Amino acid sequence: QVVLEESGGGLVQAGGSLRLSCATSRSIFSVWNMGWYRQAPGKQREWVAFMTNGGITDYADFVKGRFTLSRDNAKNTVYLQMNSLKPDDTAAYYCNARPGSNWRRYETGYWGQGAQVTVSS
User: Fold this and answer.
1) Looking at the DSSP assignment, which residues form a beta bridge with residue 36?
2) 3 state SS of 94
3) Separation in Å, CA 91 to CA 10, 34, 38, 56, 99
4) What DSSP assignment string belongs to 16-72?
5) How far is CA 21 from the centre of its chain?
6) What is the pLDDT of residue 1?
7) Backbone phi, then psi, for 47, in 5-degree steps?
């Protein structure tokens, strides 16, 4: 069983910052790719950012330059640092882990419980 434990999120004013965390087991963390999707009310879920098990990152255009992925190998945790937040970033953010790639196209793999991010204007 794959368990992803998400934390972080919250309410912040536009221009502010938040950090999401996603922790899992070492066996998953060391070989799977991990990242985040988000879903705003009334909208389809969309991928946000991913990091391969080798540390290569991929960001959706709408977060490039504002969001940054990092990892702590000792804690088996991936982080999503979100800066310069905008009201359009308001959504539920879901951690995802998968053995394969193509996160841009397929919403497969395992999911965290979700973390709400709300950005006020």
Assistant:
1) 49, 95
2) strand
3) 10, 19, 6, 25, 25
4) --EEEEEE--HHHHTTSEEEEEEE-TTS--EEEEEE-TTS-EEE-TTTTTTEEEEEE
5) 8
6) 84
7) -80, 150
Residue 38: name the closest of 4, 88, 98 by CA.
Answer: 88
Give me the mean pLDDT over the 76-94 stretch: 98
- Among residues 97, 89, 75, the alpha carbon closest in space to that of 18 is found at 89
Q: Which residues pair with 18 in a beta bridge?
A: 82
Question: Residues 92, 51, 66, 70: what is their CA dihedral angle, to the nearest 10 degrees?
Answer: 100
DSSP state of 99: S
CA nearest neighbour of 34 among 95, 118, 87, 85: 95
The residue behind tokens 């985040």 is 36
Percent over 70 (pLDDT), the chain: 100
Residue 98 contacts residue 109 (beta carbons within 8 Å): yes
pLDDT at residue 97 in the model: 97
